[in-house]
Amino acid sequence: MNSRTPTAAGLSLGFMTGAVIGASLTAFIGGCVIGRTPLIVTGLVLPASYGLLLLLATLPRRAREAAVVPRTALAVIESREAFRGEASDVPVRFELSVAPDDTPAFRVEIRQDVNLVELPDYRPRGIVVVEYPPDRPWKTRIVKRPTPEWEDRAAVAQVDSVPGPAMTSQSPEGCFGGLLTLLGLLLGTAAVLLLFRADLFDSHDAEGGAPRPSVSSSSSSSSSTITVTSATGTVALGPGQSMLDKGQLREAVESLTQGADSRRALTVVVQDRLLTVVFSPAGVQSTEFDPRSLPYDRVPELVEEAGTALGVGSPRSWQLTAEDVSGSLRLTIMVTGGGGTGTLQADGQGNVLRRSGS
Amino acid sequence: MGWDRFLVLWCAVWSVLALTGYGMSLAGVTKAQRTVRLTGRIERVRPPRHGGSRTGGISVVVTYRDPASGQQVTVTNDGERGEMITVAWEGREVGLSHPPGRPHAYRFSNTPQEPSRGLGRPSFALFMVYVGLVVLASIDWGWPYALIGFGGAWALSGAAYLPGAVRDKNRRIERLAAMDTVPGRVIAVLKDVGVDEDGDTWTTITPVVSFTTREGTAVTAHCTSNLPDPAGAYGRDVTVHYTPTDPADFTLDPAAEHRSRERDVMFHVLMCVVLVATAVTGAALL
């Protein structure tokens, strides 16, 4: 056995590592883009847990390897190849014949960093002191600062060359392992994209050719959640707030129409904590109106009037619908309470046109 | 699910880790508590090569008595062996430590070390709990709590350490005044060149001075401060000031050292003031 081939475990570990890196990176970046906390946390927790698991899984092996007492021996440098770079420590490939005192000699190929100033000390046919774990001789290392005893032995010793090919820690299929890691990375990324495709792209298979509206913006704060798509805009207020609060409704409408001055509406529906604006598609000019033109300051009065004047008892819920069906804007307010339902109709300026109750 | 729940989970996990660590320390089973700590003696100091690397420190041969077998063991600082020995003389006592039952995995320290209680990791876990709590407070109650939480706590700890820092400075200044003066020489200038991940090269120049104390101890030491034009210092004669009881405590310029200690304390005070101001700003913004 003159070279070490990568094991199935090693290859699958590379694949898994690639998958975890791909999945966690995609989850983190995707989570940041769509603002979803669980996805961001998954992106952070996944690599941490994987690392911890790997650490625990390799603990017995590392403990076993660390307990092995390294063996010191003399070796002769068969050949040396330095890879020059800008750094003062350069990587050097050594081929050594190692002659331990009590076990058979072997030939090994290693890579070790050597300082440029010390490089002349390691000439071919020179004798050096080396150290290696007896169970992994391919991990041989040149001892640059040997103890005086070994230094004296190296100064006078003769070491014979060992014929035959050298052991090496280089894996001949390293390229395959790298490809497998890359594949894992891509599959991990694809898995996250596939699992969270609904959130990440907000688009499904276009059945019947009707394209779904795309979320152009979505934001939330502790007080309200605003969602604007190409077709609708909604504002949901947080607990303890009402659209009847002073200025709240106007502010909500402004938040949906800001940055798009010319956006016109087909319908505006307001409930106690929810505002929905159905935006007008291009070319429906006859029934569209400016959602900001409604008499919002009059809404609390109209709701109160619909509730009390119609005698519905204590109002439980209310809804305002604004539409332009017959060429002029109409507001319909429906209030439901213990005593029944009251309906009130007003014009675009908030003047009451009709009342009815049941 | 909001950030709150994850932060609570974060604090809970780190709390468990901290408690486990403190429990292990009380039981005396932490890695640091089980480490075997020995005292070694430098037998030989190998002269550094001009232009070589500072990595690994000054090459030394150290002997120590193995408590298990009672035999004298000789080791060198080859490869990754803990602290870098930067001041060496024959006969100097250095610290050696190794995990139980693994004397081959020995590590050096510049001075013999006291047994440790291994509280580093649990304290780090406790720090993480603290960070989590401050972030939680600033999310739930308003961001000024971040200023109060970080500024206040660090200001308190800075203020607590201030008297100790002043005492250290005074002691150091007394030692500087009691130093002996001998001639020395720069016997080598070590040069390390590396390339960082951006492809830029960095260079570290480390002059090595050698001086003999009045008691006849030949000291070899890395000297990285108070030497003008370090790159061209090879062969230069210098005046070395050292503490007679510990030649590892030496300087080429006691006046500069004096000033730097004063500056350190000033910086400490300034940091405390900035941190208090941060906490006060946070409180004012509430």
Question: What is shown here, in short?
Answer:
The complex is a heterodimer of chains A (358) and B (286). Chain A is of the alpha+beta class and 358 residues long.
List the helices and strands and how they pair.
The complex is a heterodimer of chains A (358) and B (286).
Chain A: H1 8-34, H2 37-67, E1 71-82, E2 89-99, E3 106-115, E4 127-132, E5 141-142, H3 148-156, E6 167-168, H4 174-195, H5 197-201, E7 215-220, E8 224-229, E9 232-237, H6 248-257, E10 265-271, E11 274-279, H7 299-308, E12 315-323, E13 330-337, E14 340-347, E15 352-357
Parallel strand pairs in A: 3-6
Antiparallel strand pairs in A: 1-2, 1-4, 2-3, 4-5, 7-8, 8-9, 9-11, 10-11, 10-12, 12-13, 13-14, 14-15
Helix pairs in contact in A: 1-2, 1-4
Chain B: H1 3-27, H2 31-34, E1 36-45, E2 60-65, E3 72-76, E4 87-88, E5 93-98, E6 107-109, H3 120-141, H4 144-177, E7 180-195, E8 201-212, E9 218-222, E10 237-243, E11 246-251, H5 254-285
Antiparallel strand pairs in B: 1-2, 1-5, 2-3, 4-9, 5-6, 7-8, 7-10, 8-9, 10-11
Helix pairs in contact in B: 1-3, 3-4, 4-5
Report on the architecture of this protein.
- The complex is a heterodimer of chains A (358) and B (286).
- Chain A is built from seven helices and 15 strands.
- Chain A has helices at residues 8-34, 37-67, 148-156, 174-195, 197-201, 248-257, 299-308; strands at 71-82, 89-99, 106-115, 127-132, 141-142, 167-168, 215-220, 224-229, 232-237, 265-271, 274-279, 315-323, 330-337, 340-347, 352-357.
- In chain A, the strands form two sheets. Chain A has a nine-stranded antiparallel beta sheet with strand order 7-8-9-11-10-12-13-14-15, with helices on one face. In chain A, strands 5-4-1-2-3-6 form a six-stranded mixed beta sheet.
- Among the domains of chain B are: 1-34 and 116-141; 35-109, no CATH class.
- In chain B, 41% of the residues lie in helices and 27% in strands.
- In chain B, strands 4-9-8-7-10-11 form a six-stranded antiparallel beta sheet, with no helix packed on it. In chain B, strands 3-2-1-5-6 form a five-stranded antiparallel beta sheet, with no helix packed on it.
- The mean pLDDT of chain B is 92.
- Classes of the chains: A alpha+beta (358), B alpha+beta (286).
- At the A-B interface, helix 2 of A face strand 3 and strand 7 of B.
